[in-house]
Amino acid sequence: MGTRERPQERAQRRIAEQLGIAGREIHLARVGAGLSLREVAAASGVSRTMVWRIERGSAPEVPLAAVSRIAAAVGLEASLRLFPVGDPIRDVAHVVLLGRLRARISSDLRWRTEVPLPTVGDLRAWDATIAGLGFVIGVEAETRIRDLQAVARRVNLKQKDGELDHVVLLVSDTRANRLALRLGAAELREAFPVSQRDCLRALRDGRDPGGSSIIVL
Question: In sequence order, which residues have a C-beta less than 8 Å from that of residue 158 and are 6 or more positions away?
Fold first, then answer.
């Protein structure tokens, strides 16, 4: 079984792939227009050597601005688009929040962080998982809730795709977060039926809480 590709590794690979494609298109456009490397370099303000390297995909650190100017010199227009593919890297507050929950659970339970979903190519990951005898719980930590319904949908979808038994939505104890949870309590009750008190008690004892829960710490 191959190892999971990390986000930064995937980003570097994608950059190399896209620069390779751009380089080939620039080369074809330059040759088709009857332009020399020297002419394109003079028109774009990029060195002849750099134009040559870009055409061959051997300039992985080339600035986007340089590619854009070279493309314009051969009659092309470069563009950049970004697409959501996975979960963002979390900050220190997020790590601290996870640590507060870990301190509350039994040492008999297995705690893992940044656990990828099992589907090949899926870049999503659980912030943590808690595993005991016959059950696995995914933990999704939120330091600041901006859209509670969106968070709930994302967590529920990850539970379905990740094939876990339950989910803990772990939320920082702030006034804004408590207000958001209170306003959305009725909608969340079905998805997260186990109370915080009962869930924490079960995890402290090393037991399956029997369902998903929202925990505010």
Answer: 117, 124, 126, 138, 140, 167
CATH of the domain at 139: 3.40.1350
Phi, then psi, of 105 in degrees rounded to 5:
-105, 160
Looking at the fold, whether 129 and 170 belong to one and the same domain comes out as: yes
What does each of the 217 residues of the chain score in pLDDT, given as a tens digit? 444 556 667 677 778 888 888 889 999 999 998 999 999 999 999 999 999 998 988 887 788 888 999 999 999 988 877 665 555 656 778 889 999 999 999 999 999 988 888 877 777 888 899 999 999 999 999 988 888 888 888 888 888 887 789 999 999 999 999 999 988 888 888 889 999 999 999 999 999 999 999 999 9
| β-pair type (166-171, 135-142) | parallel
Residue at 30 is within a domain: yes
Distance of CA 207 to the CA centre of its chain: 30
Specify the pTM: 0.62
Phi/psi of residue 186, nearest 5 degrees: -65, -40
